[in-house]
Amino acid sequence: MTTTHAKTHGTLHGKVALVTGGGRGIGAATAVRLAREGADVAVTYVNGKEAAEDVVRRVEALGRRAVALRADSGDAAEAAGAVERAEELLGGLDVLVNNAGVGVLGPLEDLSLADVDRVLAVNVRGVFLTSQAAAARMRPGGRIITIGTCMTQRVPGPGGTLYATSKSALVGLTKALARELGARGITANIVHPGPTDTDMNPADGPYAAAQAAMTAVGRFGTPDEVASTVAHLATAEYVTGAEIAVDGGHAA
After folding, report:
1. Domain assignment present for 251
2. Domain containing 151 — which CATH number?
3. Considering the domain boundaries, does residue 228 fall inside one?
C-alpha cells in the first residue's frame, strides 16, 4: 500500500530530482522527502559512497527510482556532468537541489589561498555550473532550490568570513536565475538553514549550546525540517527569487 501511494498520490509524481551532496545530512533527508512526494532521485557524493547508496536504497523502498553519482562539485566538469548523467539515467530533470557545500571557518588571517579557492569552487562555481547545466535541460516548470545558510542574514561572531562570502553569492545567483528563467515557468529559490543536527554539526557537539542559544526557539533544527521546506518549493509555482529561512529565529 505504501508503494502504491508513493506512485500515484505524490505531488512530484513523474518528476526527476537531482540532489547534490545527497548522501548525508540535509541532502539525504531532502532526497528521501522528494521521493516520498513521488520523485525519482539522483544524489551526488564525493567520499561517502556507502552513505549515498543507503539513500538510494531508502528511495527505492518508497517505490521510486534512484541513483548515486560520484561527482565533486569543486571540479567544473564533474559539477556540470552530474546533471547530464542524472538526466540520462532517469529520463529527464525537473528539480535541482544545490546542497553540496564545504565550510571552512577560522580567523581571517589564517585562511589560505587554497582555502579560498576550494570554498569558492564548491560553494559558488559548482552551484553556478550545475544550475547552468540544469537550466539547459530542465523541462518547463522546473525548480532550482539552493541551500544557503543563516549566516547570510546574520553573522553572530568572528570566523565566518569565507563561508558567509560564498553563500551570500548564492543569494544573487538565485534572484538572477529567477528573472532569467521565469518565462519558462522555472523557479529559483534559496533556503537558509540555521543550526541543524547533522554529523558535521551535531546537536550534542562542543559548540552546540552556544549555537542553539542564538536561535529564538533555543534548539537545533532537524534535516527533515529543512527538507520539508525544500519539498514545498519543489511544487510551489508562485514563489521564486525568495530567501526562505529555516533557522529557528536565528536572524530574528
Report:
1. no
2. 3.40.50.720
3. yes
Domain count, the chain: 1
Contact criterion met (CB below 8 Å) for 64 and 9 = no
At position 98, the amino acid (one-letter code) is N
d(CA 59, CA 56): 5
Catalytic residue of the set 45, 163, 207, 238: 163
Amino acid at 127: V
Per-residue pLDDT of 127-186, as tens digits, reads: 999 999 999 999 899 999 999 999 999 998 999 999 999 999 999 999 999 999 999 999
238 assigned to active site: no
Question: What one-character-per-residue DSSP string does the chain give?
Answer: -HHHHHHHH-TTTT-EEEETTTTSHHHHHHHHHHHHTT-EEEEEESS-HHHHHHHHHHHHHTT--EEEEE--TTSHHHHHHHHHHHHHHHT---EEEE-------S-GGG--HHHHHHHHIIIIIHHHHHHHHHHHHPPTT-EEEEE--GGGT---SSS-HHHHHHHHHHHHHHHHHHHHHGGGT-EEEEEEE-SB-SSSS-TTSTTHHHHHHTSSSSS-B-HHHHHHHHHHHHH-SS--S-EEEESTTTT-
